[in-house]
Specification:
This protein is of the alpha+beta class.
Length: about 800
C-alpha cells in the first residue's frame, strides 16, 4: 500500500507496521532495507542506544545502512578513540556497515571524490533507521513543535532553531521550525535532552535524507504518546466550558464601571451571577489580553457541589511572598559562595617534565599573591597528581585533601606539596597516554567539593587518557561528576604535539566545554595570544551557568604555555566567579528595592528556590511584575481524577474530515444499524493500523482484532481516553449483538452514538479555540487542529 493511500484511509495513523522476526540470536538485515521490515527487538534496543552489533549478520544479503547523526563524525583508522582520524564527515552522510570490532563499526563510505573508503566509527554517533523510531504499539513516535516560553523573538516570528548535533549549541544551527509542526523522532540524544527529527515517518518512500531536519531541544516540542495536550483556556472555550455554572467570581480586579461593563460583555448570555472579591485598588486590568481562568471551590453549604469560575486578569502578586522568595534566594546565594573550592589535577608523567617548573611558579604566584586580590572570599584547595599504571603503582595518585588557603600555615603546606611534584614514567612502556580519567575521579572524590557550592576544577596536563590500559573509569563518569557538583572548569594543555595522545586531551577538553555549556545562554568563543589558543564560555551578560576555559597551543610544535599567562588566566577565572556572585546578589537585592525589570538570571534563581521550572515562574512574573493564571478544569484521565489545564485533542485537517465523514454516515440509523456500522468502523480502522487491510473479516488475524475491547481499540486508534465505563468493556465483535442485551451498555452506547453523530465544530469554535498551521508530510499539505476534549467523541462528559 502506498504511503499516500495509507494517510488517506486512516484516522490518526501516520505510521507503518513492523514485521517482527522470531530469530534473536543472529540479527539479519531485511531483504530490501528500504522496505522498512525491521525486527521490533532491534527498534526497541536501538531506541535505547544499546543495539548489540556483535549479533548482527554482515554476510547475509542486504545492506546495513547507517547515517551520521551530527556534524564532524570522526572516521578512525583503527577501532580506538585515540586512533588517527581519517576525516570528519558531515551530518546525514550515508555509511554501509560491513563489520564490528571492539565496540566500533567498520564502514564503507564515499569521500568527496566519490571514491570508496573504509574506516571505523563510534555507533553512538550514527542512526540506523530509514524510518522513525517506534513506540510500544509499533507506530512511529511523533512530536509537535511548541516553541519555548523564554525563546528570543526572531524575524521569522513564531519559530525556533534546528541543530546539526544533539548538543544544540548556537554555532550548530541549521534552520528553523515553526510553532505547531509535526515531526517524527529518528533518535533521542544520549543525554535525553534533544531529538533528531524528520518531516516524514518513512525516509525511503519519497522522503529521502532531505526530510531529516536536525536536532531539536526537547523543551521546544511535545512528545505525542497521547493526543491529549493540556493547554491554556482561551476565550470562547473557557466561556463555553462553564455555560451551565451559576457563579462567576472576579478576584483582584479594579471594578470601575467601565471594567465591570467590559467583563459582563465578555460573558453575555452566560447566565452567571457576577460577584467581586478581594479588590485591589492598585491592580490594573488589561482587557486586550485574553482572559485566563482558574477553578476554585468554596466550603460554605450554599455553594456545595458548585464549581466557581475565577477570572483573574493580570493581577499583582503578593509583595510579601515575592520578597520572602527573594530573600531566601539571597541567603542561598551567599551560602553557595561563602567558600570557593579549588581542585588542582596535574599530570605527573615524564612528558610534563619540561613544563612543570613553569607550572609550579605560576601556581605559587597565583596562590600567594593573586588570590588576596579577590576580596574577602574564602578559598579551599586540594591536589591530585596522576600518572600511568606502570609508573610505580604506590605513587600513581598522590592525593592531598582540602585545606583552607586563608590559613598561612595551610597555604604554605599546600605550596610545598606543589613544589614537591616529580614528573616521571616507566621507560619500558611509555606511550604519552596516562590515567587521566581515574586521576580526575580520585581528585574530585577527595576534594572539598560540595553540591550547591562553588567548585572549580583546574586540570593541567598534555596528553589524553590511556584507553589501552583501562581503569574502568570512562569519560561519562567525569561528565556525571562535573554535573553533580556544578563545576566551573579551567583546563590547561601545557604543550601540544601532532600526536593522537595530545589530540585526545584536546577532544576531552572540548567535550567538557560543550557539556558545561549545554542549555546555557552563553556562546563558546575563542581568542589567540601569541601561539596560544583560549576557548571559553565566560559571558558577563549571562552568569547563570558554570563556565569553562581551555588553553592550548596552536602550532602543535611542543611550545610551552608561559607561566605568566597561566597566572593571569587563573586570576581571570576566579575574578569572573566573583563578578558572577556580585551581579546575582545585586540583581536580587534590586528586586526588593522595587526594580521591576525581571532578567532571566534572576528568574532562574527564584524558580529554583521556589521549586518551580523556569517556564512556571515566568507565569508568575511578567515584565510588569504581574501574574496571569491559566485555566484549570477537572476531568478523569485514564481512570484517575486530575486537575489540569483545559484538555484538547490534536488532529490534522484531513483526519478531522474523515472522522466527520464516517460519523455522519451513522445519522438516521437505528441503534442496531449504528452499532453494526460502529463495529465495521472499528474493524476497518484497526485493519489499516495493523497493515491487514487486504485480509477478509473472517481471517483469524481479523477475528483477533475484533476480540479487543472498545476502550482498547479507541485508545489504540486515537490515543485518548474513553469515558463510558460499561461500553468500554465490550468486545468490538459483540457491538452489534450481545452488547445490546445489557441495559447499561445500551444506554451508554446510545449516548455515545449521539455524541458521534453530533460531532462538529462551529465557525466560532474553530476561530477561537483551534490553532492551525501548514505542515508537509509525504508531500501532502495539511493543517493542525486542536479540538476541545469535551467535544471529542469518547471524551465528552457522560453522567
Amino acid at each position: 500500500m502506498s504511503n499516500k493511500l495509507l494517510i488517506a484511509l486512516s484516522f490518526f495513523v501516520l505510521g507503518f507496521s513492523l514485521q517482527v522476526y522470531t530469530q534473536i540470536d543472529v540479527i539479519t538485515p531485511p531483504k530490501e532495507f528500504s522496505e522498512g521490515y525491521i525486527s521490533k527487538s532491534i527498534v526497541e534496543n536501538y531506541s535505547q542506544s544499546n543495539l548489540n552489533w556483535a549479533n548482527v549478520d554482515f554476510n547475509s544479503k542486504g545492506k546495513w545502512k547507517i547515517y551520521c547523526d551530527r556534524n564532524e563524525v570522526r572516521i578512525l583508522k583503527n577501532p580506538n578513540v585515540t586512533s588517527i582520524v581519517i576525516e570528519k564527515l558531515p551530518f546525514r552522510t550515508e555509511l554501509n556497515v560491513i563489520g564490528y570490532k571492539d565496540n566500533f563499526l567498520k564502514v564503507q563510505y564515499l569521500d568527496n571524490n566519490q571514491d570508496l573508503q573504509l574506516g571505523y566509527v563510534e555507533p553512538e554517533h550514527t542512526f540506523l533507521w530509514q524510518r522513525a523510531l517506534c513506540g510500544k504499539n509499533g507506530f512511529p513516535k511523533k512530536v509537535i513543535s511548541l516553541t519555548s516560553i523564554n525563546r528570543n523573538t526572531t524575524d521569522d516570528g513564531d519559530s525556533d532553531m534546528l541543530y546539526v548535533a544533539p548538543e544544540c549549541h548556537q554555532n550548530m544551527e541549521c534552520g528553523r521550525f515553526k510553532r505547531l509542526e509535526l515531526f517524527f523522532i529518528l533518535k533521542e540524544s544520549k543525554e535525553h535532552d534533544s531529538y533528531l527529527i524528520s518531516a516524514s515517518s518513512d525516509l525511503s518512500n519519497g522522503g529521502g535524507m532531505s526530510s531529516i531536519k536536525g536536532w531539536v531541544k526537547k523543551n521546544n516540542v511535545q512528545l505525542w504518546s497521547t493526543r491529549i495536550a493540556y493547554l491554556e483556556s482561551r476565550g470562547f472555550e473557557a466561556h463555553n466550558a462553564y455555560q451551565n455554572k451559576q457563579i462567576c467570581v472576579f478576584k483582584n480586579v479594579d471594578v470601575n464601571d467601565n471594567v465591570a461593563a467590559n467583563i459582563n460583555d465578555a460573558f453575555i448570555n452566560s447566565n452567571k451571577v457576577v460577584r467581586v472579591e478581594e479588590i485591589s485598588e492598585d491592580t490594573k486590568v488589561n482587557l486586550d489580553r485574553p482572559l485566563l481562568f482558574n477553578l476554585t471551590e468554596f466550603d460554605s453549604e450554599d455553594r456545595t457541589n458548585k464549581r466557581d469560575l475565577v477570572v483573574i486578569v493580570n493581577y499583582s502578586e503578593d509583595d510579601a511572598q515575592v520578597e520572602s522568595e527573594i530573600r531566601k534566594s539571597i541567603n542561598d546565594l551567599k551560602a553557595r559562595y561563602s567558600e570557593i573550592n579549588l581542585l588542582f589535577v596535574i599530570d605527573g608523567t615524564a612528558s610534563m617534565q619540561p613544563n612543570i617548573k613553569g607550572i609550579k611558579d605560576a601556581l605559587n604566584d597565583f596562590i600567594k599573591k593573586d588570590i588576596n586580590l579577590l576580596g574577602d572570599m574564602d578559598f579551599t584547595a586540594s591536589l591530585t597528581v596522576y600518572r600511568d599504571k606502570e609508573d610505580k603503582a604506590n605513587e600513581i595518585f598522590p592525593v592531598y585533601k582540602s585545606v583552607s588557603l586563608k590559613s598561612q600555615q595551610d597555604q604554605s603546606d599546600f605550596l610545598s606539596k606543589i613544589e614537591g611534584i616529580n614528573c616521571f614514567s616507566n621507560p619500558k612502556d611509555y606511550s604519552f597516554n596516562e590515567q587521566l580519567y581515574l586521576g580526575m575521579k580520585k581528585g574530585v572524590e577527595n576534594s572539598g567539593f560540595k553540591q550547591n557550592s562553588a567548585n572549580i576544577l583546574i586540570l593541567i596536563g598534555d596528553a589524553g587518557n590511556d584507553d589501552d590500559k583501562p581503569s574502568n573509569v570512562v569519560r561519562e563518569d567525569i561528565d556525571a561528576l562535573i554535573k553533580k557538583y556544578g563545576c566551573d572548569l579551567f583546563i590547561l594543555q601545557s604543550t601540544n604535539l601532532m600526536h593522537e595522545a595530545f589530540e585526545g586531551f584536546s577532544d576531552d577538553a572540548i567535550h567538557w566545554i560543550n557539556e558545561i555549556n549545554t542549555g546555557s545562554s552563553n556562546s563558546i568563543h575563542s581568542e589567540t595570544e601569541n601561539k596560544n589558543l583560549i576557548i571559553s564560555t565566560k559571558d558577563e551578560n549571562h552568569f547563570q551557568n558554570p563556565s569553562a576555559t581551555f588553553i592550548t597551543q596552536i602550532n602543535n610544535e611542543g611550545d610551552v604555555v608561559p607561566a605568566s599567562m597561566i597566572t593571569s588566566l587563573l586570576y581571570d577565572e576566579l575574578n569572573y566567579i566573583r563578578k558572577k556572585y556580585n551581579k546575582r546578589l545585586v540583581d536580587l537585592q534590586e528586586k526588593i528595592n522595587g526594580n521591576k525589570s525581571w532578567d532571566e538570571e534572576t528568574v532562574r534563581i527564584l524558580a529554583q528556590n521556589s521549586g518551580k521550572s523556569f517556564e512556571e515562574y515566568m507565569e508568575v512574573l511578567n515584565s510588569e511584575g504581574h501574574v496571569s493564571v491559566v485555566g484549570q478544569t477537572n476531568m478523569k484521565y485514564y481512570g484517575k481524577d486530575v486537575s489540569a489545564y483545559t484538555p484538547y485533542v490534536f488532529v490534522t485537517s484531513k483526519e478531522l474530515d474523515i472522522v466527520i465523514e464516517k460519523f455522519n454516515k451513522l445519522k438516521g440509523m437505528n441503534q442496531l444499524q449504528a452499532a453494526q456500522a460502529l463495529e465495521d468502523f472499528f474493524t476497518d480502522q484497526l485493519k489499516i493500523m495493523h497493515g491487514l487491510i487486504n485480509l477478509p473479516n473472517n481471517d483469524p488475524k481479523i477475528q483477533e482484532l475484533k476480540s479487543q475491547t472498545v476502550e482498547h481499540a479507541w485508545n489504540e486508534l486515537f490515543n485518548v481516553d474513553f469515558v463510558y465505563p460499561e461500553l468500554s468493556k465490550v468486545k468490538i465483535g459483540n457491538l452489534s449483538s450481545g452488547s445490546l442485551k445489557n441495559k447499561t451498555v445500551k444506554k451508554e452506547l446510545n449516548h455515545f452514538l449521539k455524541t458521534v453523530q453530533s460531532f462538529k465544530l462551529s465557525q466560532k469554535e474553530q476561530r477561537d479555540i483551534t490553532w492551525t498551521n501548514n505542515y508537509n508530510s509525504s508531500n501532502n499539505s495539511e493543517e493542525f487542529l486542536w479540538i476541545p476534549a469535551r467535544k471529542f467523541p469518547g471524551m465528552k462528559s457522560y453522567n
